[in-house]
Amino acid sequence: PSNLTITFGVGPSLFVKDNQDRFGLKHKQPKELVDLPAFPLDALEEEWTGGDLCIQACADDLQVAFHAVRNLIRIARGKATLRWAQTGFQRTKQADPKKETPRNLFGFKDGTVNPDVDSKKQLNEHIWVQPGDGPDWLVNGSYLVVRRIQMFIEVWDRTNLREQENTFGRYRDSGAPLGQKNEFDKPDFTQKKETGEDVIPVDSHVRLSHGDGTQQILRRGYSYADGMDLKTGSFDAGLLFLCFQRTPSKQFIPIQNRLAKMDKLNEYTSHRGSAIFACLPGAKQGGFIGETLF
């Protein structure tokens, strides 16, 4: 119903927790499936971090997604308990029949640069785990990194448009890289202003996330809005950042290391939650999710 899809993943703590081989699965743990390193400026909260199992339910109707998770949790009662949950949203199909790049709560397009999901070559290179990468049970699966990023909306709203665009390295209206015309134009990091300054600032989000262009991840970001932060009296809102990749140590981690050190966007955001999961490959006819692992 409502184009419901469900993705399942397993976290590092399912294999080993507090040095305990909890379910006899330690020998099957992939080398890549380990807790993410601590990044500069992280402000992680235990209530939004980690987990043995991951359920991602997506649907055109929020109620359908909610009940999908609810029923799975009901079935698991006595064996699994809910650790944390976050509702996220994007623009609806009715609001955006052209399927343009969605915008985040700062008003900028989010997710312009992604691998071509119609290219088997790109997906095998960047997203799907391949034979020889690690344990065979994860072949054709993928690694999911989740980051719950709080956005300081009020601070952002006091910043002028030029400064906002320099922070992202893109124009707000078109989504084009600074110095270019269209959203999907390639950014030119060599371009200079008459003053000698870089057109795309060295600490801009697009420049740092791009790096040398070899590290690609499949980003699927969702906005969240959870009312008010009672501690500060400001919006409790932000981005539930999800990305899929074949090798986190060579993809998300180096990208995030660059961003955490000098991204101008860090002035307006704070990473509050974090998790990594190995997303299980699809089941064969008559089989079950996780059959290759269990």
Write the layout of secondary structure elements.
Blueprint lengths: L4 E6 L1 H4 L37 E6 L3 H14 L44 H7 L15 E10 L1 H5 L3 H8 L36 H6 L7 E2 L2 E8 L4 E12 L6 H11 L6 E11 L15
Antiparallel strand pairs: 1-2, 1-7, 3-6, 3-7, 4-6, 5-6
Which terms would index this structure?
7 strands; seven-stranded antiparallel beta sheet
Could you write a compact summary of the structure shown?
This protein has 294 residues and is an alpha+beta fold. Helices cover 19% and strands 19% of the residues.
- How would you describe the oligomerization state of the chains in this entry? single chain
The rounded Rg comes to 20 Å
State the share of residues found in helices, binned by percent. Answer: 10-25%
The biggest sheet, with number of strands, parallel, antiparallel or mixed sense and barrel status, is: 7 strands, antiparallel
Q: Uncertain regions: pLDDT < 50 for 5+ in a row? A: none
Mean pLDDT: 95
| Silhouette | globular
First-residue to last-residue Cα separation: 29 Å
Quickly give the structural class. alpha+beta
Figure out the total of helices: 7
Order of helices and strands: EHEHHEHHHEEEHE
Number of strands: 7
Q: What share of residues are in beta strands? A: 15-25%
